[in-house]
Each structure stands twice: as structure tokens, then as C-alpha cells.
Design goal:
Length: 457
């Protein structure tokens, strides 16, 4: 299965790709199905299940579902328009999606949180229904938000890969071993192979402009985070720290007061700025998820601002390499915290970032694969236990530490010749197995770990 760089890096809205972007996308898909149907809908209902119910309010899943059914989409999200629409929907009990008649939808009555067992297909499940004038259900669909903003219907999830046509690309690698063998046989880098695959679906100019847009949104998000102050929403009272940290680091520059390890604070700053914006519901880029959105851009910013010889001309190489690694992880395991814990989110992000950095520092394909493996291996077993269901504690700091691990992993790999004991494919399979064995309370339900051992009120 081909996963584009634009599948791995989606422009969207915080705080969660699985719990915010996914339900919004599902709402859009359901509206499209309604427009194509012969039915005359008069009302809508929605129910959230599994992790979407347990941590839904903390992740703004209820808001995202309402807005999705009103016609909002993550890539074109406008915060001011969304707030106005939410107020109007709650006042009137009606949504007015484009291309459909006004539909009865009172969130207090028609949006249910089901705290029973999750739906059978995935931990992040939701059911959307359309009703006629008598209130009878005329169309119903089950959707699963499987991580990174990806959404599948129950039928699509059950069919698996067999339902998706194979992509005709020159380098159809699905594992790291295949990727390395194709690189060896072709003499091309991972980024060059990934670029050749992408060009089968879009012209070079569109590819380059799209990747430039991805970095622009990442950088704007980071800059907003370093400038903003205040308390993050959700009730925990978490204060934004990025601006104060940035000011302290700037004040220390040139005063011969900084220790070498201060560079770690810069990396943490960049990541925390992104994830504070994400926690506030700002515009972010999945990398590969919202909860892990800060790690990869922090490593890019570290490279551009602190590494001699770095140039934005090679940003495409970084993103293409990272997307190649992320696609392998998603195809063979997961990038979803609800499926495999945070090892699948920040762990995957660190592996992608380490690979991208190794590539732009002129690493060989074997060294790039080694960098990704080191980063992922040392996130294995990491749980997803957000306090009060908010993508704040421990998520914000965790992205900073993920960035630091990614840079260390790339550096270690570049000191060697690419040979190493544990293949990336083995680390990915271990992550999948560990996620399968992990207790549900440690997989984005906020029923275990820090979520129950830290006061959250």
C-alpha cells in the first residue's frame, strides 16, 4: 500500500489527530454519503465508543464531531467560524451542512458517549446515523479513527489491504529490508526512491510546493507557540512554558554561560511550542499524529538553526525520508496511541525524525535505517496515559525528549557504518506485539498510569 508524504503529514487542528481530526473527517465522509444517497434526511445522531468516549471531552471529540457534521474539515478549519457555528448549533439544535437541508442535531440529546466496551474493530469507534421526519434511522455507518487522521468505515477496516488497489510505483517497499535492498540495487537514496514514487501521483512542482507548505505550517505553529502565553484549556491549569523558556535561552546567548547540554533545551523548546499550540486547538501538522506533532519539526528546526551547513533546500529530502519510515511503521504496526500506546506516536515520530536528520547529514540508507531503529527501540513499551484525557501531561514534554532521542539516534548511527544487530523491521514488529499485549488502560483511555496517579482537578 502506498502512503504519500501528504498522508503522513496532514495539516489539521489540535489537540488530537485520532480524537479530533478523525471524528471531523468521519463527519465529512458521512455527509458525503448522505448527499449521494436517495434518502431525505431530517436529523442526525452520533455515538462515541472506546477511547473516543473515555478521553473524548479532553480531546475535543464532541466538538469535532459536531463540526464535522456541520461541514467543517481539518485542512480548512477556521477557529472563529467554528466557534460561531458551535454556538449557533447549540442554540438552534440544527446543523446546516453544504449540499443538504437543515438537519436536526441537538448535541445534548443526539451526541452520546458510550462508556461500555469498545466497538469490535478498533479502540476509536463512532457510529453516525441519519434519521427521517419520523425519527427512524435511514442511513447508518460505523467509522474507526485509526491514528494520524486516517479514518476507515467498518467494512473498509474488515476488508484490510485486500480492498485497496495496489499502487503502481517504481519502488514499492513495504518493509525496511525491502527498502534497503531497493536502495542498494538502484543506487538511490531513500528520499530519491520516495520522490520517484510520489511523482507517479502528482507533478514535481505540486510535490515540492506541498512539502514547502507542510514546513511553513510546522514553523508557523512553532513560532506561535514560542510567542504565546497563558493557561492551556481543559481544566488542568497547565501554563504555557515555551515563551519563557525561549526568552531565557535567548538571554543566555553570547554570555558564555551555557553548558553544551543546553542544546537539549532548544530542542525541547521547539517541540513544546508545537505541542502547546496543539493542546490549545491550534493548526498543526500530523507528524505522524497530533500528539506527536512536535518531535519532527523540533529536529528540523534544530538542524536548520544549529547545525552548520543546513539548508532549507534539503527540507524535501528530510520529509520524504521521514515519510518513508513512517509509512513502513504504519503499514506493519501502528501510529495510534489507542492501538499501541505512545510508543506508536512519539516513538514513531522519533524514528521518522532520526531518519530524516541522518539523511540530510549525508547518511547512507543503512545509516538512515539504523537511526530510525535506535530511536524506535528506545521508546518500546511507552504507554499513553494522558492526565484527564488531555494532550498535555505527559505529552508536551514527551515530544521534547523524543526530539532529543531522535538527534542522539541519528548521531550514533552516523558514527557507525550502518551495520547493527536489531533491524528496524524487528523493532517495528516488537512495537506491534507490545501494543497488542499492553493493557487497555495504558492505551489512551486515561484509566491507568499518570492519569490516575496525578491529581487532575
Amino acid at each position: 500500500m502506498f502512503l504519500s508524504v501528504f498522508d503522513m503529514f496532514k495539516i489539521g487542528v489540535g489537540p488530537s489527530s485520532s480524537h479530533t481530526m478523525g471524528p471531523m473527517v468521519a463527519g465529512g465522509r458521512f455527509l458525503a454519503a448522505l448527499r449521494a444517497s436517495p434518502f431525505r434526511p431530517r436529523g442526525l445522531r452520533a455515538s462515541l465508543h472506546g477511547s473516543l468516549a473515555f478521553t473524548g471531552r479532553g480531546h475535543a471529540t464532541d466538538r469535532a464531531t459536531i463540526l464535522g457534521l456541520a461541514g467543517f474539515l481539518p485542512e480548512s478549519y477556521d477557529a472563529a467560524k467554528a466557534e460561531a457555528a458551535l454556538a449557533e448549533i447549540r442554540r438552534t439544535g440544527t446543523v446546516t451542512p453544504p449540499g443538504l437541508p437543515p438537519l436536526s442535531f441537538d448535541p445534548a440529546r443526539d451526541l452520546a458517549f458510550d462508556f461500555g466496551p469498545p466497538l469490535p474493530g478498533h479502540a476509536n469507534g463512532m457510529i453516525l446515523k441519519a434519521t427521517d421526519a419520523q425519527g427512524d434511522v435511514i442511513l447508518e455507518e460505523t467509522y474507526y479513527s485509526i491514528g494520524g487522521g486516517f479514518v476507515l468505515t467498518a467494512a473498509e477496516l474488515a476488508a484490510g489491504e485486500s480492498a485497496r488497489p495496489a499502487a503502481e510505483v517504481p519502488y514499492p517497499f513495504e518493509t525496511a529490508a525491502q527498502m534497503l535492498e531497493m536502495a542498494r540495487a538502484s543506487g538511490r537514496s531513500i528520499a530519491e526512491m520516495k520522490r520517484a514514487n510520489e511523482l507517479c501521483f502528482r507533478p514535481a512542482r505540486a510535490l515540492d510546493e506541498g512539502m514547502a507548505r507542510i514546513w511553513a505550517v510546522m514553523k508557523d505553529c512553532m513560532d506561535r507557540g514560542m510567542a504565546a502565553e497563558g493557561i492551556l484549556p481543559g481544566g488542568l491549569g497547565v501554563r504555557r512554558r515555551a515563551r519563557a523558556l525561549h526568552e531565557k535561552l535567548l538571554a543566555e546567548r553570547g554570555r558564555n554561560l551555557t553548558a553544551p547540554h543546553t542544546i537539549n533545551d532548544w530542542m525541547s523548546l521547539y517541540a513544546m511550542a508545537v505541542n502547546e499550540e496543539n493542546a490549545a486547538g491550534g493548526q498543526v501538522v500530523t507528524a505522524p499524529t497530533n500528539g506527536a506533532a512536535g518531535t519532527l519539526p523540533a529536529v528540523i528546526r534544530y538542524w536548520l538553526d544549529h547545525v552548520p551547513g543546513a539548508s532549507e533546500r534539503r527540507l524535501g529530502e528530510f520529509l520524504l525520508t521521514a515519510a518513508a519510515i513512517g509509512g513502513i511503521v504504519k503499514h506493519n504496526a501502528s501510529i495510534s496511541g489507542a492501538e499501541c500506546g505512545c510508543q506508536a506516536e512519539v516513538g514513531s515520530a522519533a524514528a521518522m525524525a532520526a531518519a530524516g536528520l541522518a539523511a540530510v547529514l549525508d547518511g547512507t540508507p543503512a545509516q538512515v535505517e539504523n537511526a530510525a531503529e535506535i530511536a524506535l527501540e528506545h521508546h518500546l513499551g511507552m504507554t499513553c496515559d494522558p492526565v484527564k484525557g488531555l494532550v498535555q501531561i505527559p505529552c508536551i514534554e514527551r515530544n521534547g525528549l523524543g526530539a532529543i532521542k531522535a538527534v542522539s539516534a541519528a548521531s550514533l548511527a552516523l558514527r557507525g557504518d550502518g551495520t547493527h544487530f536489531v533491524p528496524l523491521d524487528a523493532a517495528i514488529e516488537t512495537m506491534r506485539q507490545t501494543g497488542h499485549d499492553m493493557h487497555e488502560k495504558y492505551k489512551e483511555t486515561s484509566l491507568g498510569g499518570l492519569a490516575v496517579n496525578v491529581p487532575n482537578c
